[in-house]
Amino acid sequence: MLSMSAYDLKTLIKTPVARNTFYSLTGQVLPMGVALISIPFIIKNLGVEKFGLLTLCWTILSVFMYFDVGISRSFIKQMAENIQNNQFEGAGSLLSLVGVIMLSISCIAAGVLFFSGPLLTNKAFNIPPELMKEAQKAFYILALILPVISLNSLVRSLLESAHRFDKTNYLNSFVGSFNYLSPLILSFYHQSLSMMFMVILLVRLLAFLLGLLWCLQVLKPVFQGPYGNWAPHFHIIKYGFWLTLTNFIAPVLNYGDRLVIGSLLPLSALSYYVTPYEVLSRLWLLPDAIVKVMFPSWAARQNQKMSSRPFQFLFFALLLMMLSLIFLIQSFSKEGLRLWVGEAFATNSAPLIPYFLLAVLMGALTRIPYTWLQATGQIKRATVIQVLESLGYLIFLWWSVKEFQVMGAAIALLVRLFFEYALFFLFAKRVFYHVRVFLSLFGAIVAFMGYTYLMNQLTSWSIKALILLVALAILFWAGKILISQNLENAKQ
Length: 492
Hints:
Elements: H1 6-13, H2 16-46, H3 48-65, H4 69-84, H5 91-115, H6 117-124, H7 132-161, H8 165-189, H9 193-218, H10 235-264, H11 267-280, H12 285-300, H13 309-331, H14 333-341, H15 343-349, H16 353-375, H17 379-427, H18 429-432, H19 435-457, H20 461-491
């Protein structure tokens, strides 16, 4: 049997990819820990309905954050190539062009949000009358935050293109933590949502200034100008257009469930849906950290022939890591919800957990081919996939929520991510297609469904813990074999 030597493992851990992945991941772990601690107290202080309004505001902010991601990804791709080739001529013009585009998009989005505040409050969402005035004030503050988000995105993109993930780690930790700390602290003294988001605005301004200072230190040649020669860089707008189009669709796909629930059901239902999903979706921090690090590397080598072996290694390693996490969470999901946020959430949210966990697994694996398509200039394929799925998903989502309430939204989410997974892997079949890729996922889904059924029949914590240990041991054994085989193949 093949075995992984200590040397192989040590070599793998010391690679730049592993180091940068660690930086990227830790930048998201701290906010997740802050969220786990803060959310129960915020719910207790604000109440379920007002917390539902807070989650709706977070959702709106997240939706608008997508609008300039296309240009920032395009910027990272171009700047990473320039830095690798040590070509800084015209870098200042590229930076100024991207900055103007991103700020223009965010200002337009801010104007739309600002002037549509009354419509959103009175017509679009099912907001109780006593919260309407406060909701409208909060929407006005959210509009002011959008341009600052673009400025933060610009400096983070510049640092990522230079592979300074340690710096972006600090920024992400700072901004992400205060996204929850601000509502937590103010909920004890002043329960105004507009005041909470005003503090978040100030935090993001401070993060931008800190990020700009680091950019000036790390990439001084980029800021030496000239800044006005935009013509040679207009080609990134074409590439960025497809990314931006994709990111206009992405909020519909990623946050459509919350917006539909907020429109059709009470805000309390939104709280019961979003609270567990917000935490479980944080499991995507692991694949996000990996692909964020891989994107500049793949972009810089897009014209070189790429072997499929590293991608299959990445797939199987991620599959086994995610399976270990979702098996662990499913084992004590209801008990965990009861201890964390109380009996009401355990009763209303626990039935959604298996659907969320499978959806998280699908979404994690899909990030690999999706990022590869973006990095290698095949963004049209990714856009076509998301355009095709968006209309069908919205129709199915609306019907599911009307018929089955929040359970319908969870089912629609899982169905969407399953089809998205299949389509992205087929479009990226040159490096990802392998029968083991599809058979492994099918086996993982069947195993998880059987495991979930078994755990639902058991009441003894000790028996559950024993079965969990057996499952984790099997996954560890499988992972050791698969990773060892891929390491052996890499040496050939």
